[in-house]
């Protein structure tokens, strides 16, 4: 359920890429900018792969040139030894060498301790090194081929507290399902949007009023045993859910006319061509547009500026700021014809990255009204994708994102003008509080 598809991650990284790093000397010495999916076959992870990752972060990450390389190596070493311990493969001679802060000297000492290295532990070290940056747009990804016969899964593709690879620490009970793929194992089991997840594999989803992050691991098991409560009846049942074939449709814009003539447009992501799809849906130039960005996980900044160009011209939409030097302003695409429509935007905690870029531009430039809940606060900066010699990828932001008022949105989110959260009962009964509030404001 809480699982990212590597191909989707790569596509998003490429579409959101900041300017690429300087050309690599050789593929054995440096990571290379990834401009296409990784090769299907590649050598196993080696100590040299870990070296590539180490130098890739120092050379290409936003604050890499100013980082203390000792911190990276300590994170990597801790994960390396922990992986060995989990497999009863620890070594008596494995101790972290004295580190000086000189990246080349420290690497030589570090590599000398590792020797030939252990493949599993090396992968864990690379993952931990990037995770230690504590950046929501930085990650290590190891693409896996799509299983024969097509994609598989449970079919539960939306959970109320989902926020990237974890659960929203600001979430409050209950945790409920927001989206189920038709014809999927979940749908065949009778699971519906609005169903409350009480437990996963016997693990409660909340401890008091705090979401239980440990259930992420439970969700990843196959099968997973879910204890569900239906909000309309109060009935509780336990189902064992096994993964099976699923059908995923490519993202697309959908629209409908609301009472009074406003057009409700749902935009699931800022994928390539998304802005033009929205503009095409509004070719009748309605007096009001309810743009639904709930659950929109982001995408391309170029699509953001293009869509904003349909509602305003000559506006700064955000800033991309390097570690040193001047910030680069992003501006509305003024080649787009203005619609002249009143804009109301629906957001939630699933609105992240480019979605927050758009929301902040609307709010700061007074282009419309935000309705729903505060956005995710996951917009550190657009990530570029770098290829390592084992076929894995590092996604690393090279700049920091700031809103049009030069405010930090990352970790904080964009606040709404009118609070209208979606509840489990709303989903189960088909009521939409965001749309209801939007209509009341028109």
Short description:
The chain has twelve helices and 25 strands. It has 442 residues and is α+β, with helices and mostly antiparallel strands.
Count of DSSP-assigned helices? 12
Overall average residue pLDDT: 92
Helical content class: 25-40%
Overall 3D form = globular
Computed CA radius of gyration, to the nearest angstrom: 23 Å
- Terminal CA distance reads 37 Å
Strand order of the largest sheet: 15-16-17-20-21-25
Instruction: Pick out the low-confidence regions.
Output: 2-27
- Tell me the number of strands: 25
Structure commentary:
With 442 residues, the chain is of the alpha+beta class. Helix content is 27%, strand content 21%. Strand 15 and strand 16 form a beta hairpin. It has a 6-stranded mixed beta sheet, with helices on both faces. Strands 1-22-23-2 form a 4-stranded antiparallel beta sheet, sandwiched between helices. A 4-stranded antiparallel beta sheet has the order 9-8-12-13. The longest helix has 18 residues, at 69-86. Residues 2-27 have low confidence and may be disordered. The protein starts with 5 loop residues before the first helix and ends with a helix. It is built from 12 helices and 25 strands. Helix 3 (69-86) packs across helix 5 (119-131). The radius of gyration is 23 Å and the shape is globular.
Strand and helix map with partners:
Blueprint: H1 6-15, E1 32-33, H2 47-60, H3 69-86, H4 103-114, H5 119-131, E2 139-141, E3 152-153, E4 156-159, E5 162-163, E6 166-167, E7 177-180, H6 185-188, E8 196-200, E9 203-204, E10 206-207, E11 210-211, H7 215-219, E12 224-229, E13 236-241, E14 244-245, E15 254-257, E16 263-266, H8 274-281, E17 288-292, H9 301-308, E18 316-321, E19 328-331, E20 342-347, H10 354-364, E21 369-372, E22 383-387, E23 393-397, E24 400-402, E25 418-419, H11 424-429, H12 433-441
Parallel strand pairs: 16-17, 17-20, 20-21, 21-25
Antiparallel strand pairs: 1-22, 2-23, 3-14, 4-7, 5-6, 8-9, 8-12, 10-11, 12-13, 15-16, 18-19, 18-24, 22-23
Helix pairs in contact: 2-5, 3-5, 8-9, 9-10
């Amino acid at each position: 359920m809480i699982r990212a598809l590597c191909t989707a991650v790569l596509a998003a990284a490429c579409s959101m890429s900041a300017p690429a790093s300087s050309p690599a000397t050789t593929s054995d010495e440096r990571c290379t900018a990834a401009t296409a999916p990784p090769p299907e076959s590649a050598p196993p992870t080696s100590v040299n792969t870990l070296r590539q990752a180490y130098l890739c972060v120092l050379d290409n990450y936003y604050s890499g040139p100013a980082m203390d390389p000792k911190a990276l190596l300590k994170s990597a070493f801790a994960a390396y030894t922990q992986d060995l311990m989990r497999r009863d493969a620890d070594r008596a001679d494995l101790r972290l060498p004295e580190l000086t802060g000189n990246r080349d000297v420290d690497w030589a000492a570090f590599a000398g301790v590792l020797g030939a290295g252990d493949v599993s532990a090396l992968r864990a070290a690379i993952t931990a090194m990037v995770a230690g940056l504590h950046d929501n747009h930085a990650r290590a990804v190891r693409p896996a081929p799509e299983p024969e016969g097509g994609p598989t899964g449970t079919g539960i593709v939306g959970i109320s507290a989902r926020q990237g690879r974890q659960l929203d620490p600001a979430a409050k009970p209950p945790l409920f399902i927001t989206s189920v793929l038709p014809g999927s194992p979940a749908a065949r089991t009778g699971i519906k949007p609005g169903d409350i997840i009480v437990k996963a594999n016997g693990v409660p989803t909340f401890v008091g009023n705090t979401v239980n992050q440990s259930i992420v691991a439970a969700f990843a098991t196959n099968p997973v045993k879910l204890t569900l409560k239906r909000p309309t009846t109060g009935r509780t049942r336990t189902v064992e859910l096994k993964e099976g074939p699923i059908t995923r449709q490519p993202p697309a814009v959908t629209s409908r006319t609301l009472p009074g003539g406003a057009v409700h447009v749902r935009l699931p992501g800022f994928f390539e061509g998304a802005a033009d799809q929205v503009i095409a849906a509004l070719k009748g130039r309605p007096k009001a547009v309810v743009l639904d960005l709930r659950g929109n996980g982001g995408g391309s900044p170029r699509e953001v500026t293009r869509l904003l160009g349909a509602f305003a011209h000559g506006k700064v939409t955000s800033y991309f700021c390097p570690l040193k030097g001047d910030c680069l302003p992003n501006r509305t695409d003024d080649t787009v014809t203005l619609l002249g429509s009143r804009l109301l935007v629906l957001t939630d905690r699933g609105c992240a990255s480019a979605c927050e870029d758009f929301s902040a531009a609307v709010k700061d430039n007074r282009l419309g009204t935000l309705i729903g809940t505060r956005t995710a606060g996951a917009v550190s900066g657009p990530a570029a994708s770098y290829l390592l010699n084992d076929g894995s990828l590092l996604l690393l932001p090279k700049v920091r994102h700031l809103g049009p008022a030069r405010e930090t949105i990352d970790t904080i989110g964009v606040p709404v003008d009118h609070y209208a959260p979606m509840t489990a009962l709303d989903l189960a009964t088909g009521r939409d509080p965001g749309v209801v509030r939007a209509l009341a404001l028109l």
